[in-house]
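LAB NOTEBOOK - FOLDING QUEUE
OPERATOR: T.R.
BATCH SIZE: 2
PURPOSE: Compare the predicted structure-token outputs for two unrelated chains run back to back under identical settings.
PRIORITY: normal
REVIEWER: second-year student, initials M.K.

ITEM 1
FIELD SEQUENCE / FIELD STRUCTURE:
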Amino acid sequence: MPITKIKPTNISNTGVYGISTGTDITQNNSITAAFNAANNALSSSGSIAANVQFNSFGVGTAASNTTGEIRATNNITAYYSSDIRLKKNIVPIENALASMDKLRGVRFEWTDDYIEQHGGEDEYFNRRHDVGVIAQELREVLPELVAERGDGYLAVKYDRIVALLIQSVKELKEEINELKKKQNG
């Protein structure tokens, strides 16, 4: 379906309905500003001519009003670029098991401030009890997986931890094979 200029047919306090695709855009800060930005971003040929920025975005749920946060109540399907043709200086992660030994998988509770700043506790996104890693510990092992946000807090690229796990399993397999050789030798 080609992209066309957005033409709202009904604007209410809860959102905009009746756009040509039947899409429902929930009001975040200013529906008028969002429509103006979206219309300005679309050229007359229907292709995107500029960037559109929203503070937060909700798909199937209300936006959180936390700048930069996207929430969806269903699957988010995407692929990361990983083609070998896009990479150079490829080397395995060395001492993956030793690196894993420096990390902890932890259970924890988010602070009251964190929960409040992210829209309160709910059934999808903000549960007080959670699991994860500690960003400061991961930064010591794989600094590429940790970023400092504008507010000074550290964030983790959880999906990238898989590379460390893969290499750790390979190292474990190698150790097991060596033990089997000694046992059978």
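ITEM 2
FIELD SEQUENCE / FIELD STRUCTURE:
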Amino acid sequence: MNDNIKTAMVGTPCQILAATKINKYSEKTGGSSIDIKIGLFCMENFSYTYLKKFLTEKDININDVEGFRIEENKFKVLLKNNDMFTVPLSETDSFKRKNCDICLDYTSDISDISIGSLGSPKGWSTVIIRTEKGKEIIENAENEGYFETKEISDKGKKIIEKIASKKIEKNLENINVREKVSRPVLYTRNISDEEIEDISSKCQFDNLESDVISEGACVLCGACEYVCPIGIVEIDDRKPQKFGECKEDCHACYYACPRTFLSKNVLGYNFKAKPLGEYIDIISVRSNKIKGQDGAAVTSILMYLLEKNLVDNVSIVGEDEEISWKPVSRLTNDVEEVKKAAGTKYSTVPIGFKALE
């Protein structure tokens, strides 16, 4: 890894956690160039294969889809002919990824900046500023005219807290059900770094497979693939697989995985007590640079970071050029490519760890 390279990463809560663990345990994982973490609000994510199957069963060709939205507890499919297909969010269970059932983080609590639409007026994004680094970025970008901001209303904040708490309560129930018939869900075990060192220093990919992958807890973030020092772990639209023998005394994948044990130094508070995590401020943001989904806050921030040379590249999720709505993660330093990739992709994709310097 080139220590001089700086990357801004955009990701879901589990992906942000993976990036955090990769750098926290850099002596074991090799670290990464991720310097700024922009987290997304996330209730759940979807399987591309089963989303496409669901649409087919509803006589919708995915090539005819203009966009997807989740609003008012409904899953909305916007078609290119301006029609809209809407179903209750509960009907998405057939294509929801089951590992989402054990996630307790709605607002990407350990990022520098968290962004979503919930809680802000239409046409605005909600931004949770969590670190001093995040605060400086938001203040300077606003001063440079990239967007305008306003304080979020008390009602808006309560809505976010309500939804975050609902996710936590529902998924704690799911965790209890799982643990009655199977093994413990490790990442809910908040332990010390000393305990993590003692456990993880004995674990390799086979342990990761039995503790996380086979238990249906893998989030397909790509961290295990990225940190493997001999390149024998691969993810190809399916669960991570190992092709070969692990390097002796290598425990990188177990340290990096967001679904193994969670250090008290990474997340030292109770989810139920602080459903939005630790933060400095919550505001609403509307871009002055681009018109996009909600307030286009993510795109505006990435544009600012690149144009002011604060990072060397940013992670984005675009679409496969040949497969409609198939998400593809990559790094770029091209502002126009960032603009083109704007908008939420409603299928899971391994984040572009492999492309990092």
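REVIEWER COMMENT (ITEM 2): The chain has two domains: 7-45+97-355, 46-96.
FOLLOW-UP: none requested
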